[in-house]
């Protein structure tokens, strides 16, 4: 586990980027830092692989202060996915992925086979391996960034807005792929995002930061939705949290009803909703009562054994007859139907169960108070009959917008473009001269003093820097 102990970071110009941050990042889990632009997320991440040093406080990794670990060693144990991708443009995909193994001196055949294996792992076709980053889509580039960070099988993954530069559909796919990969790999992950939905979806633990790098609240996603600590968190998780909280409630308890089913659309009549099934009892569509024999498309389906109430509600809301159709995922067979009203009644029950018996205060009181016009979460969920992201972007506060939207219309963020320094560090090596890499506390600056020639480094193309870095890595470590 990684422990932040009263960590603060003040830049030389006096900017308080991070203030008194204390947090435990558990091993093998995903901790997401979320917060508005400029709230210190990247700064926090860069202190974990010692690209930056805290001004005060300390970070301890598995019982050992980071300062007592060599930077180069540390960075090779921590994969880093840079904000906005940061692939080396003049290196092929395979060469990009193989960067760290190359620096570690693996032999070429082993690097190639490891890089190919990683292409598979991140779901990219092997033939993309010979392409250059510019010949890939944004989503593919982000996968390559993840593959590169995984290349030397690091213990820790530091991911700075790894899925921000893609549209919501691709982002959704990347989320699924990422969660699947994490189920296999169980890395200790710190992931940064602007997007509260992404944080809630991916995080085992979510830490909400406010500007100045102050921790507003940390906890499991459900806890933040149900018990926001203050008005800032309430505002940040948004008025849709009643709806979002449904993501944590299983649909298994909903009582399913039944409708008339037919296997042949013709002659089904037009009395009430009629569901068309195929020969294997898999739902095909609803019979259109207005046009005999015509079949209306299915809404989304849900499986009560594995899905959440949110999926069930989506299913009801996308159904042309207002009924969610439940199927068994294994067999695809129809098992029953339920209306949006019945699903929401289930939510009311689940919420009632959260009431705190000792104080008599409903646990859901905080979320309720912040819904529009004092609506209960159930009412809010009823009112929110569209998925969260369909709220027009410009009606949402900047904090709630996906990063790519936020960026388009606001002051460019300091780290919008990956710097060459970051790119080099993503390869697991130090951009700073190695002599600054002593394990002792004296060697580590307490303020962010740039290394000699840092300005030059910032301007250098990533490749050039990498080569300089490779040379440095070949030299014996200066003690
Ligand atoms: N080298 C620096 N010198 C001075 N101030 C800096 C420096 N780097 C960052 N800052 C400031 O520190 C604060 C935190 O920056 P940081 O990059 O950590 O924010 P962030 O949360 O990652 O933002 P974004 O979401 O836009 O990426 C900002 O006010 C930023 O302007
Ligand atoms: Mg940032």
Automatic annotation (TrEMBL):
Report the residue ranges that make up the ABC transporter domain in this protein: 2-237
Pfam families in alphabetical order: ABC_tran
The record's region (Disordered) falls at: 353-479
The record's annotation in InterPro entries points to: AAA+_ATPase, ABC_transporter-like_ATP-bd, ABC_transporter-like_CS, P-loop_NTPase
Gene3D superfamilies linked: P-loop containing nucleotide triphosphate hydrolases (3.40.50.300)
- Domain of life per record: Bacteria
Record key words, sorted: ATP-binding, Nucleotide-binding, Transport
Q: Where is the composition biased (Low complexity)?
A: 357-377
Keyword ATP-binding assigned to the entry: answer is yes
Q: Mind telling me which PROSITE patterns this protein's record contains?
A: ABC_TRANSPORTER_1, ABC_TRANSPORTER_2
Renumbered to this chain, the Basic and acidic residues biased-composition regions fall at 393-413, 468-479
Report whether Transmembrane helix shows up as a keyword of the record. Answer: no
Q: Which family does it belong to?
A: Belongs to the ABC transporter superfamily.
Q: What is this protein called?
A: ABC transporter domain-containing protein
State the organism named in the record.
Microlunatus ginsengisoli
């Amino acid at each position: 586990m990684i422990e932040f102990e009263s960590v603060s970071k003040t830049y030389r110009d006096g900017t308080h980027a991070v203030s008194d941050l204390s947090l435990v990042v558990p091993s093998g889990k995903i901790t997401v830092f979320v917060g508005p632009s400029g709230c210190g997320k990247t700064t926090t991440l860069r202190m974990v692989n010692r690209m930056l040093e805290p001004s005060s406080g300390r970070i301890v990794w598995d019982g050992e202060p980071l300062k007592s670990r060599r930077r180069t060693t540390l960075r090779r144990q921590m994969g880093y996915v840079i904000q906005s991708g940061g692939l080396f443009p003049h290196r092929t995909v395979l060469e990009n992925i193989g960067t760290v193994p190359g620096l570690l001196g693996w032999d070429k055949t082993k690097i190639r086979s490891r890089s190919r294996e990683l292409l598979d792992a991140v779901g990219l076709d092997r033939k993309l391996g010979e392409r250059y980053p510019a010949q890939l889509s944004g989503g593919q580039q982000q996968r390559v960034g993840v593959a590169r960070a995984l290349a030397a099988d690091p213990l820790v993954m530091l991911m700075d807005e790894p899925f921000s530069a893609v549209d919501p559909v691709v982002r959704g796919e990347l989320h699924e792929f990422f969660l699947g990969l994490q189920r296999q790999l169980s890395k200790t992950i710190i992931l940064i995002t602007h997007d509260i939905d992404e944080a809630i979806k991916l995080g085992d633990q979510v830490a909400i930061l406010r500007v100045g790098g102050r921790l507003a609240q940390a906890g499991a996603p459900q806890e933040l939705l149900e018990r926001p600590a203050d008005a800032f968190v309430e505002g940040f998780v948004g008025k849709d949290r009643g709806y979002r909280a449904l993501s944590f409630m299983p649909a298994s308890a909903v009582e399913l009803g039944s409708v008339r089913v037919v296997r042949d659309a013709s002659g089904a009549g037009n009395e009430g909703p009629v569901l068309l099934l195929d020969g294997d009892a898999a739902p095909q569509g609803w019979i259109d009562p207005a046009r005999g024999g015509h079949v209306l498309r299915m809404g989304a389906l849900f499986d009560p054994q594995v899905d959440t109430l949110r999926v069930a509600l989506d299913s009801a809301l996308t159904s042309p007859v207002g009924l969610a159709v439940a199927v068994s995922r294994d067999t695809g067979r129809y098992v029953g139907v339920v209306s949006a009203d019945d699903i929401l009644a289930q939510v009311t029950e689940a919420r009632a169960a959260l009431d705190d018996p000792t104080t008599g205060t409903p646990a859901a009181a905080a979320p309720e108070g912040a819904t529009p016009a004092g609506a209960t979460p159930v009412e809010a969920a009823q009112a929110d009959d569209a998925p969260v992201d369909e709220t027009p972007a410009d009606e949402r506060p900047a904090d709630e917008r996906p990063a790519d939207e936020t960026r388009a219309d606001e002051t460019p963020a300091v780290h919008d473009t990956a710097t060459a320094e970051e790119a080099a560090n993503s390869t697991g090596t130090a951009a700073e001269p190695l002599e600054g890499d002593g394990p002792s506390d004296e060697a580590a600056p307490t303020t962010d003093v740039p290394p000699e020639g840092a300005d030059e480094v910032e301007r250098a193309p990533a490749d050039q820097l990498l080569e300089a870095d490779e040379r440095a890595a070949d030299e014996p470590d200066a003690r």
